[in-house]
Amino acid sequence: MNAHLAASDLLTQTGTISTPKDRRRVVFATVIGTTVEWYDFFIYASAAGLVFGQLFFAPAGAQFATVLAFISVGISFLFRPLGAFLAGHFGDKYGRRVVLMIALIVMGISTALIGLLPSFTSIGIAAPILLVLLRVLQGISAGGEWGGAALMAVEHAPKDRRGLFGAAPQVGVPLGLLLASGSMAIMAVIAPGDAFLEWGWRIPFLFSIVLVFIGYYIRRRVEESPVFLEIAERKEQTQAPVVKLFRKHWLLVIVAALVVAGNNAIGYMTTGGYIQNYSTDPEGPIGFDREPVLFAIAASGVTWFISTWFAGWLSDKINRRRTYVIGWVLQLAGVLALFPLVNTGEIGLLFLGCAFLTVGLGFTYGPQSALYSELFPASVRFSGVSIAYAIGCILGGAFAPTIATLLVQATGTTAAVTAYLVVMTLIGLAATLLLRDRSGIPLGPEHEEEQAASPFLIRKK
């Protein structure tokens, strides 16, 4: 073996995860952990679209109550950067693993407490205030979760399989959507009508405690990232990683955030509860029952899962940038088809529209962990991926359901929503085209100079 083999590659090949069993454990733990996190995050959005307007914001009036419920979804995104800053700081100093464990516990406790909250009719204004405070804790947790999960997966991966390994935290989103929508759909069957409003929606929130115990048990059995172990062994942890990140890589943070924003705005049509609300509104143009819509959304999580994992694999074959460009084209087609299919009033076509949309979403999300990990230098990588992702979620998904609701109320048609989603997709495409593909770049701290070179396609001479 070459005596000069990078320590991070040595760990990956012969140390920390030297066997296929060890690698499977990393992937499995990442998938389970992120699925639990996003399940918790998405059942809030689903409940916001279905019941929170009536339970917590009813005094504002029917239409504005829905807007306030969706605003409460978006508020949590404003606190994601705080979670990302904290997670990035401690993750770059003390390791990825401990941050992931804390994020999982905070998310689970917050979610379970939401399931126990009294409604506005019981405790008045305290109800929406407590709801928003718990949603803020969810946002802080989500801000710290994704970066750590992405790095644990990619930094453990062989160089030529980072896209596939990196797809592990990405599939947590469609699996979380499937689990959240599926659990809500089952409860809508078990507790139909007023029973769902009174207590049925609470059960999926309380079930989060069980999922958190499972996720915690699995995650604590996974070793720390080999790249961080090498950084710690060299005693090269950055004392102020966030300061260094913005001093040297601020433009990269912005461009990387725009890549996420282009995907996130479209994804939150379903994960943010908008399609669920729009298609089940009894005063709206469609007026579906809750159960078939929730099952259709859950089923679209399957196609999202498949396309996300496939895109991660494909990015190892044709590189991240090309995979993303294909994804933006597919996503644009899905955006243009979504509302024409939903507005037919046929539940099968609503599913088809959501499923078609998820194909492009998977292609613009599956390679993201690998893309981000290869963009930022090792010493600030946790901070870089976490903060860029959090900012992108604010620019994209945070208020996408609110914006869509207000556009329909103002224009009386979903055409304006389609135009908004087209613009966001084109922004994501433009940001991707600015970046140079860096598939396979060494990730260890001994290659910091190479990692710090401009990742942009056009470089200053």
UniProtKB/TrEMBL annotation:
Subcellular location: Cell membrane
GO molecular function: transmembrane transporter activity
Domain spans labelled Major facilitator superfamily (MFS) profile: 26-440
Keywords: Cell membrane, Membrane, Transmembrane, Transmembrane helix, Transport
Record flagged with keyword Mitochondrion: no
Keyword Endoplasmic reticulum: no
InterPro entries: MFS, MFS_dom, MFS_trans_sf
GO cellular component terms attached to this protein's record: plasma membrane
Pfam families: MFS_1
Transmembrane intervals: 26-52, 64-86, 98-117, 129-154, 175-193, 199-218, 250-273, 293-311, 323-341, 347-366, 387-408, 414-435
Membrane topology term: Multi-pass membrane protein
Identification of the protein by name: MFS family permease
